[in-house]
Amino acid sequence: MGLLSNRVGKETLKAGDHIYSWRAAWVYAHHGIYVGDDKVIHFTRGRDQEVGTGTVIDYLLVSSGPARSTTPCSVCSSNEATAATETNGVTSSCLSCFLSGGALYRFEYAVNPALFLAKARGGTCTLAATDPDEVVVRRANYLLSNGFRCYSLFKNNCEDFAIYCKTGLLVAEQGSVGLGQSGQAVSIIGGPLAAVVSTPFRLVTTNIYGMVVMAVGVYCVSRYAGDIGNRRDVLKLEVEDLTAGLASGRIRPANISQLATPGQVQAPAVTTLVAA
Q1: Which residues form the catalytic set?
Q2: In angstroms, what is the C-alpha Rg of the chain?
Q3: What is the pTM assigned to this prediction?
Q4: In this predicted structure, what is the pLDDT of residue 175?
Q5: CB under 8 Å to 148, separation ≥6 — which residues?
Q6: For residue 183, which of 202, 163, 199, 203 has the smallest C-alpha distance?
Q7: What is the pLDDT of residues 173-191, one digit of tens each?
């Protein structure tokens, strides 16, 4: 992997890797966890729909997705876990079906800030550190059997799923508005935000280069501040507690002051399950 690309060969993969593949025209990337034996566990809307919002935006997203083969995959069709988890969104596929003809990329963890900002496109790396590979694989397999919350393009998507499997970190929801830990979602919001924030500077300077520099600066700051490894509103949650709490509706952050600070994001934060 280099500065400009995280592209890797299949022979370099090991169980516990967070991988992704860009879809047509690089509109979005689909993320998953490689668990070995040519298998990938990943999160979708359910019934193999990789993305979606329930709005007209879906036309653009679906049209950029991979073309589905009419011939069932002999590997995936024999995977009983895939059929069993079709409705909750977490599914298992062979690596070829996951890639759908696209290139293979490996998501990077614990990158330094300079490298993070150098990779201008979100959804390729994070400042947060990863847990051991065996823990990552255990989380992915557990969620394959038990599900992973409700799909949301901006708050709970395939990248959020993979990042949780790698780190055990979740964003504590405060109300109904907000973003998950997905770098792609932060980038989507950061672009328009940069344009809006930099607009008043037209009153200060008419130099096009100055306005571009300002917009790029705002975009970089929004990406850096929104990264899961640099946020204050994250908590460490064991996968068994996550699924048990979701089933009963009992998960609540007990105290915002107990959530991880930027310097402590790798350390477990305290989460209490309370009655709904």
Answers
A1: 30, 42, 158
A2: 19
A3: 0.75
A4: 47
A5: 43, 88, 89, 90, 156, 161, 164, 242
A6: 163
A7: 654 444 455 656 555 554 4
